[in-house]
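Researcher: I'm preparing a figure for a lab meeting and need a structural model of a single chain. I don't have an experimental structure, so a prediction will have to do for now. The sequence is pasted below. Please return the structure as C-alpha cells so I can convert it later.
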Amino acid sequence: MNKKIYPWYIITFVIILKFTLEYLFVSSIYELHRDEFLHLDQANHLAWGYPSLPPLTSWLAVIIKFLGNGIFWVRFFPALAGAITIWLVWEIVKLLKGSLYAALLATFSILFSSLLRLNILFQPNSMDVLFFTLILFFVIKYIQTEKNINLYFLGSSIGFGMMNKYTVAFLVAGLFVGILFTPHRKLLLNKHFYGAIGLAIIIFLPNIIWQIQHHFPVIWHMNTLERTQLVNVNTSDFIGEQIKFFAGSVFIWAVGLILLFVYPPFKNYRIIGIVFVITMALFIYFHAKGYYAIGLYPILFPFGAIYFDKILSKKYFSWLKPTLIILNAGLIIWLSPVIFPLSSPKYIASHPKRFEKLEMLRWEDGKNHQLPQDFADMLGWKELARKADKAFEMIPKNEQTQTLVLADNYGQTGAINFYSKHIRNAVSFTFDYLDLFPDFSKIKHYIVIGEQSDDKDIAHFKSFQKIGEIKNPYAREKGTGIYLLSYPDETIAPMLKKRLSSLKAEL
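Model: Understood. Here is the structure written out cell by cell.
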C-alpha cells in the first residue's frame, strides 16, 4: 500500500491530541486516585505477583519512581497505552486496505470515547485494552500473511497481557472457541501454534509459580470481588455501560461486528466476531464490571469504518463523512464536564441532575452519592499524608524508626507512602501488604489511620492522641481519623501478630 495514502503526520497529530487531552481533562483540584496509590506503591516492594493483580503495572511504577514520581509521568503511561491502541487501530485499517477516511473514522472513534477517561488513571485497565487490541491485531496479521512469526508475537502478547491483568484469560478462551469453529482450526496442526502457546506460558510462568507458592490468592481475590462488588452488577447495567463507552460511534462498532458474520469481504475474519461474542458472554456470565469489556471494541472499528466509507462514498451521502467525526467529537466535548474530573466537587454536589441522568453518582454499593465514586476517590489524600506527618513529627526523633504507620485500606497506605515527607513504610491489613509488616515487638509508636479503636484497645497504650481527621466534605475518606498511640503493653504485639497470621491463612 502506498504510504502517501496514510500520511504519517496525520496519525502523529491524532496521537499528540490524545496526550494533550489526557492532561487537559483533569482539574488540578483532584489528586491521584485511590487505586493509583496501590499500583505506585508496588514499586517499593516488587514481586512476581500480588493478591489483587499480576506484576506488570508494578514494573511501570518502578519507571515512574525512577523518573521522580511526578504527576506528569503517572499520567503519561496510561496515555501512552491509549495512544498505542489508537495507532494499532490505524494499522489495522491499513492491513484491511481501507481508505484514509476509514482510518480517520476508526481512530477518532477510539480517541473520542470512554478511553479518554480510562487513560487518565494509572491502573492496569489501560494496558488491558492495549493487550486485547494487540492480541487481535496479530490474529489479523497472521490471517493475512500466515507467517508463523505472527503466532509468536501473538503468544508474547498473551503472556505479557496475562502479566498485566487476568481478564486476558477470557479473551484467550474466546480465541480458542473462534479457532475451533472457523477454518482457522488448521492451526491445531501447526507446531508453531503450540510454540506460541509455550511462549505465552513461559512469559506468564513466574506469576503462575508465585500463585502456587501463595496458594492462589487470585481465587480469594475473585471471591472477594464477587461478594463485595460484582454482586451489584446486573446484566442490564452491564449492557447499558457497553453502549455508553463509545456513545458517539456505537453504530460503527455494532455494524463492524454484524458484518464480520454476514459480509463476504470480511468472511476470513469471522473469528474476530466469534471472539467478541464468546468473551462478552463470559463477562456477562461472571457478572464482570462493564469496563472489563472495553478492550473488545477497538478491533471492531476498522471493519465498521471501512464499510461506512464505502456507503458514504456514494454521491448523496459524502457530506456525512466529516459529520460523523465532528458529531462524535462534539458529544465528548459536551459531556466532558460530567464524565471527566473537570468540575469542582462543590459544583457537582450542587448541580447533580446531569450527573444523575448518566448514573455517574452511583457507586459500587449500588447507591447514589454527591460525587462520582472515581472523583471522590481523588480527594483528601494530601490532607491525610500531611496529618500523618504531623503525628510522626510528634514522636521523639530517636524513636521514629520504631514507629509503625497502620492504615485501614490500600488507598490510605499508598497515599501516605506517596505524599508523606517522612513516611515510606506505611502498611495495612489488606492482602497486598501482609508480607511487609515489621516485627511488632520492636514497635513503640503506632500511627493508626481509620476509625478510633474502642477504649479497651486504647487502654493497652500509655499515650493516646487524636491528631486530626480528613475534613474534605467531598472525599470518600471524609472523617477518617489519624491517631498516635505510644508505648504499648506486652499484649499488643502478640495480638497483632495473631491477626496478621489469620489473614495470611485466608490466602
